[in-house]
């Protein structure tokens, strides 16, 4: 304590500390390759604020564009008659799935155009399938010889083109989906026969490829999928994630999901996805994401889809509102065509979401959950909250024919509570309802005066 003996070395030490550049791990938590440690990592804050992302399923399955992106599996493994017949009727007898590779041309793919459509959707992140279960990589992976977009098909680095366009032209974060397993990779099949005692596939293919992918494209969402029935120890998921969080170029901002091995879903990793199209309708104690697709039956593009197979914009706004009110993010999927176009039906849905969010974004982005997720009296009313400005948003999906909206949950303050319709802006009259809550007088608007058509949001002040 104040000892002159310590005065000597103290000064150089101080200098050294000042002169040292801030190292990667300085001040930041270090994560061990255990679920206990990795699960305790706080999710980077941008993700919860973003609320809305776009999922893109694009690969060789976009060439047959028939049935589902699981085309190869259904054809070769399951031999489902619909797929077998399709091949018999449309291709020569010896034509196999691998022959679709060169036909994946991406002829009209314009990453800038995609980026502009993504921006117009109001989404704050995008997740592209860098590799689906078929194993075809949308970049020139040296571990996917002759089965990648640079060696065959487009002969272009699709991942790079979209990354540059998204980062250069939009405010979206760039994310990548990556399937751990591959249906028919011989090394994976050999490991599977050994009940995953052998680890040939992760050691020589999946792990080196995934490290390369992260270093090269620096995705801020890493959306893992396809554990192939193998445990996380087979994939060395915890070893990889410890590197991702401690050392990787995206260690401070990357978010991941929960699909890191059999049994890890809804339990380990970053945010929870739990199942495809997960939308629990109630609050969860952990950040989650509802990944769903505009085509009700497929993630990849299908030429055999009819108009009724696509969710309407009303359906999609409902998904967004329900999801965000319950603390989730919505990841809404489109499937581009093999030649790289986003079909007008998907483009329209994306742009519609964007116009809705232009009016109602305040009730979505950067919000938190409220004490009540949906109304207890009126159906299809969902709440969000901004604690700092003490604003409560009530999003309603049906415009009441009476012109009056009964909200059973908000406890209003006489003389203080103000109610506005987003996109309209004027103060609305309200009265205490005979039961609980308040009755809001909605404005009388003509069709053309409506700020939007598929769902509306009231902003309430001074409510408890
Ligand atoms: C980024 O966008 C600007 C303006 O649109 C363009 O001039 C520039 O070439 C782009 N950069 C890259 C790397 O694409
Ligand atoms: C798992 O990954 C970590 C980090 O890269 C590495 O140190 C470890 O040796 C790996 N373990 C196995 C069994 O592959
Ligand atoms: C609130 O949402 C839950 C879950 O979707 C639903 O079961 C309940 O009926 C809703 N409440 C009203 C009043 O609609
Ligand atoms: C609110 O109520 C008052 C008194 O009934 C009425 O004069 C006024 O026009 C109403 N305002 C709106 C926006 O409906």
Automatic annotation (TrEMBL):
<dbReference type="InterPro" id="IPR057739">
    <property type="entry name" value="Glyco_hydro_29_N"/>
</dbReference>
<keyword id="KW-0325">Glycoprotein</keyword>
<dbReference type="GO" id="GO:0016139">
    <property type="term" value="P:glycoside catabolic process"/>
</dbReference>
<feature type="domain" description="Glycoside hydrolase family 29 N-terminal">
    <location>
        <begin position="28"/>
        <end position="362"/>
    </location>
</feature>
<protein>
    <recommendedName>
        <fullName>Alpha-L-fucosidase</fullName>
        <ecNumber>3.2.1.51</ecNumber>
    </recommendedName>
</protein>
<dbReference type="InterPro" id="IPR017853">
    <property type="entry name" value="GH"/>
</dbReference>
<dbReference type="InterPro" id="IPR016286">
    <property type="entry name" value="FUC_metazoa-typ"/>
</dbReference>
<dbReference type="InterPro" id="IPR018526">
    <property type="entry name" value="Glyco_hydro_29_CS"/>
</dbReference>
<dbReference type="Pfam" id="PF16757">
    <property type="entry name" value="Fucosidase_C"/>
</dbReference>
<dbReference type="InterPro" id="IPR013780">
    <property type="entry name" value="Glyco_hydro_b"/>
</dbReference>
<dbReference type="GO" id="GO:0006004">
    <property type="term" value="P:fucose metabolic process"/>
</dbReference>
<keyword id="KW-0732">Signal</keyword>
<dbReference type="GO" id="GO:0005764">
    <property type="term" value="C:lysosome"/>
</dbReference>
<dbReference type="Pfam" id="PF01120">
    <property type="entry name" value="Alpha_L_fucos"/>
</dbReference>
<comment type="similarity">
    <text>Belongs to the glycosyl hydrolase 29 family.</text>
</comment>
<dbReference type="InterPro" id="IPR000933">
    <property type="entry name" value="Glyco_hydro_29"/>
</dbReference>
<feature type="domain" description="Alpha-L-fucosidase C-terminal">
    <location>
        <begin position="373"/>
        <end position="461"/>
    </location>
</feature>
<dbReference type="InterPro" id="IPR031919">
    <property type="entry name" value="Fucosidase_C"/>
</dbReference>
<feature type="signal peptide">
    <location>
        <begin position="1"/>
        <end position="27"/>
    </location>
</feature>
<comment type="function">
    <text>Alpha-L-fucosidase is responsible for hydrolyzing the alpha-1,6-linked fucose joined to the reducing-end N-acetylglucosamine of the carbohydrate moieties of glycoproteins.</text>
</comment>
<feature type="site" description="May be important for catalysis">
    <location>
        <position position="291"/>
    </location>
</feature>
<keyword id="KW-0378">Hydrolase</keyword>
<dbReference type="GO" id="GO:0004560">
    <property type="term" value="F:alpha-L-fucosidase activity"/>
</dbReference>
<comment type="subunit">
    <text>Homotetramer.</text>
</comment>
<keyword id="KW-0326">Glycosidase</keyword>
């Amino acid at each position: 304590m104040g000892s002159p003996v310590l005065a000597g070395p103290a000064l150089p030490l101080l200098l050294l500390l000042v002169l040292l550049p801030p190292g990667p791990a300085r001040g930041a938590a270090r994560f061990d390759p255990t679920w206990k440690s990795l699960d305790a990592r706080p999710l980077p804050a941008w993700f919860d604020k973003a609320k809305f992302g776009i999922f893109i399923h694009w690969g060789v399955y976009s060439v047959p564009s028939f049935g589902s992106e699981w085309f190869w599996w259904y054809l070769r493994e399951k031999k489902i008659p619909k797929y077998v017949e399709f091949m018999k009727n449309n291709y020569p007898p010896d034509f196999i799935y691998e022959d679709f590779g060169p036909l994946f041309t991406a002829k009209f793919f314009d990453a800038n155009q995609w980026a502009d459509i993504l921006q117009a959707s109001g989404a704050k992140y995008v997740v592209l399938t860098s590799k689906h279960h078929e194993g075809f990589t949308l970049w020139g992976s040296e571990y996917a010889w002759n089965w990648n977009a640079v060696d065959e098909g487009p002969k272009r680095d699709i991942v790079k083109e979209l990354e540059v366009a998204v980062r250069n032209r939009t405010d979206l974060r760039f994310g990548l989906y990556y399937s751990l397993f591959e249906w028919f990779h011989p090394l994976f099949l050999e490991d599977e026969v050994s009940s995953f005692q052998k680890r040939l596939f992760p050691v020589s293919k999946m792990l080196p490829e995934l490290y390369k992918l992260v270093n090269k494209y620096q995705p801020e969402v890493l959306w893992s999928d396809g554990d192939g029935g193998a445990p996380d120890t087979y994939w060395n998921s915890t070893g990889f994630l410890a590197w991702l969080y401690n050392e990787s170029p995206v260690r401070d901002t990357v978010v991941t999901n929960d699909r890191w091995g059999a049994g890890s879903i809804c339990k380990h990793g970053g945010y929870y996805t739990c199942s495809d199209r997960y939308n629990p309708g109630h609050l969860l104690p952990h950040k989650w994401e509802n990944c769903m697709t505009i085509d009700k039956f497929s993630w990849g593009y299908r030429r055999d889809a009819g108009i009724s197979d696509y969710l309407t914009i009303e359906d999609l706004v409902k998904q967004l509102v329900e999801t965000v009110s319950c603390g989730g993010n919505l990841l809404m999927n489109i499937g581009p065509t093999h030649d790289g176009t986003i079909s007008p039906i998907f483009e329209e849905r994306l742009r519609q979401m964007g116009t809705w969010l232009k009016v109602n974004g305040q009730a979505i982005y950067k919000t938190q959950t409220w004490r009540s997720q949906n109304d207890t009296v009126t159906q299809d009313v969902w709440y969000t909250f901004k604690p700092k400005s003490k604003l409560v948003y009530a999003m309603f999906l049906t415009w009441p024919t009476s012109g009056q909206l009964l909200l059973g949950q908000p406890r209003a303050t006489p003389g203080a509570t103000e109610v506005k319709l987003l996109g309209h802006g004027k103060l609305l009259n309200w009265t205490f309802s005979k039961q609980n809550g308040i009755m809001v007088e909605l404005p009388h608007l003509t069709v053309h005066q409506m700020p939007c058509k598929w769902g509306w949001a009231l902003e309430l002040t001074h409510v408890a």
